[in-house]
């Protein structure tokens, strides 16, 4: 069901201020932003707003990274599922700047659980209270844990504790073993054992915010046309203000020369020179592309463990459930969750009357499953759906495609934030600013652009001003 949502109040920190190199007192110089995902686009936006000369280089043939789109049947939609929350204020500010926020469709969603071979609804307080796998005490402890997590401000304390220890303490062993452990294993595999309690804190806090109050309904939104629409407008916005946008341009090597400029090799004979470089790509790749970083910095970049994902997109003639997300606690199911995008995205106006389902499996970045064959994953998905849903049949599938990404989200291990490499590197003028620096939240677009802007304003720009003032 679509719901009218009040226009968001103007946010003072919306980055609509005019380009003002003079106001900042810093001259314009040539910047290269490496990576054309939302972090790279955000950094380019910050630089353009300060009157800088910006080039943004993306390795893939299109911009967007994890938010990029592809074609499924006759439908163009995101390769990986994306929704926006009412509380995603920075993202909504950006969409306002791009004249897209007023077009957003907001929808109430339902959440399902697949538990003991049964599909159960857990979308409101009454359903939560009836939820069969847990007794009343366990339900109270689960609800209490989520409420308590949503109120915690001191996330650094949680970073020191293992997620298992923390959840067993607050939810009890029964809830941990019936609910949390299967969910953690589905999302993180065995890596959950090294994960800190900050992971579950960030996750529950975001989901709690998604509900308008307490255990009530969730509101999720999307822009008609999906991220393809947002990316097209965003790249156009940058180009209109003078940014040079390069696709199919992987930065292979970044080297600082004696004259203080950076020589960037794009690997196909193209070499260009810049005054400053901001790399937004995954940390292990940053270590490989910038040989002049110190050994300690390279060690820190390479020490970050990521979660990757294999994610099928399935275009269907019929829906398979009424739930946007079906969480899975039965350990035989080889999927992290079932995501039915068409419970949010309008089937008639956006998906040609069809239904869109995503079937993700998150795996650690060194897991062999990330490189398995598409045929095997497809067969695994379809035979699993046949077992989970009596009415599911393969002849309802119009198109089926599999997307993979090795570096999706940095794993929130114990004391993670203390082991991060600095944004301002030991190579003057080279900045490493990527989503691995998210320490107070889980990975999502709002968090990525919020962090990008924060780190840019607090670290990158002041460092640049100091250097040019010398
Ligand atoms: C399955 C899934 C579901 C998600 N669901 C949601 C959701 O519902 N809501 C939400 O808000 N967020 C969601 N997200 C998260 C969101 O997609 C990310 O927060 C965001 O896209 C991260 O952007 P990024 O720029 O940091 O990284 P990326 O998107 O990974 O961008 C990095 C870019 O760098 C490029 N690159 C790599 N190496 C080089 C090189 N050498 N030279 C040049 N370019 C290079 C890559 O091609 C890529 O385009 C989801 C992500 C996934 C995977």
Query: Level of helix content?
Result: 25-40%
Tally of separate helices: 14
CATH superfamily membership of the domain at 29-68 and 226-303 and 417-469: FAD/NAD(P)-binding domain
User: Using only CA atoms, what is the Rg?
Assistant: 23 Å
CATH T-level fold name of the domain at 29-68 and 226-303 and 417-469: FAD/NAD(P)-binding domain
Question: How is this structure best summarized?
Answer:
Residues 1-17 have a biased composition (Polar residues). The protein has helices at 21-24, 38-48, 89-97, 125-130, 136-151, 155-158, 163-188, 197-210, 227-240, 283-289, 295-303, 347-350, 374-388, 445-469, and strands at residues 2-3, 30-34, 53-57, 69-72, 75-78, 84-85, 105-109, 111-115, 118-121, 218-222, 244-246, 253-256, 262-265, 271-274, 276-279, 306-316, 325-328, 337-340, 355-364, 397-410, 430-432. It has 470 residues and is an alpha+beta fold.
């Amino acid at each position: 069901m679509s719901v009218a949502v009040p226009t968001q109040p103007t946010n003072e920190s919306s980055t609509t201020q005019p380009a003002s190199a003079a106001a900042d007192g810093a001259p314009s110089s040539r910047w290269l932003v490496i990576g054309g995902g939302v972090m790279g686009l955000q950094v380019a936006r910050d630089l353009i707003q300060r009157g800088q000369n910006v080039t943004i280089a993306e390795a893939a043939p299109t911009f967007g990274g994890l938010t990029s789109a592809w074609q499924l049947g006759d439908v163009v939609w995101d390769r990986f599922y994306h929704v926006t929350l009412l509380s995603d204020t920075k993202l909504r500010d950006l969409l306002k700047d791009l004249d897209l926020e007023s077009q957003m469709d907001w929808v109430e969603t339902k959440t399902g659980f697949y538990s003991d071979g049964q599909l159960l609804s857990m979308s409101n307080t009454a359903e939560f209270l009836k939820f069969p796998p847990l007794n009343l005490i366990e339900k109270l402890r689960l609800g209490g844990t989520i409420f308590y997590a949503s109120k915690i401000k001191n996330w650094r304390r949680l970073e020191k504790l293992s997620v298992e220890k923390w959840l067993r303490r607050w939810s009890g062993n029964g809830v941990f073993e019936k609910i949390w452990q299967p969910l953690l294993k589905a999302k993180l595999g065995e890596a959950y054992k090294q994960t800190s309690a900050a992971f579950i804190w960030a996750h529950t806090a975001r989901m709690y915010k998604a509900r308008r109050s307490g255990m009530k309904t969730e509101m999720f939104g999307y822009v008609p046309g999906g991220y393809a629409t947002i990316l097209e407008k965003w790249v156009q916005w940058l180009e209109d203000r003078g940014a040079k946008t390069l696709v199919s341009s992987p930065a292979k090597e970044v080297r600082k020369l004696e004259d203080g400029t950076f020589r960037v090799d794009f690997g196909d004979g193209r070499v260009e020179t810049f005054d400053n470089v901001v790399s937004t790509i995954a940390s292990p790749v940053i270590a490989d592309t910038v040989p002049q970083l110190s050994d300690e910095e390279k060690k820190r970049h390479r020490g970050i463990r990521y979660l990757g994902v294999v994610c099928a997109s399935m275009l269907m003639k019929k829906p398979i459930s009424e739930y946007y997300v079906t969480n899975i606690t039965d350990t035989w199911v080889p999927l992290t969750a079932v995501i039915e995008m068409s419970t949010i995205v309008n089937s008639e106006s956006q998906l040609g009357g069809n239904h869109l389902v995503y079937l993700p499996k998150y795996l650690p970045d060194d897991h062999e499953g990330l490189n398995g064959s598409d045929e095997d994953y497809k067969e695994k998905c379809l035979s699993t759906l046949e077992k989970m849903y009596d009415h599911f049949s393969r002849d309802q599938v119009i198109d089926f495609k599999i997307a993979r990404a090795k570096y999706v989200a940095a794993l929130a291990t114990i004391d993670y934030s203390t082991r991060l490499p600095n944004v301002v590197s030991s190579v003057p003028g080279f900045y490493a600013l990527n989503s691995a620096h998210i320490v107070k939240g889980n990975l999502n677009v709002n968090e990525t652009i919020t962090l990008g802007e924060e780190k840019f304003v607090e670290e990158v720009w002041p460092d640049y001003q100091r250097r040019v003032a010398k």
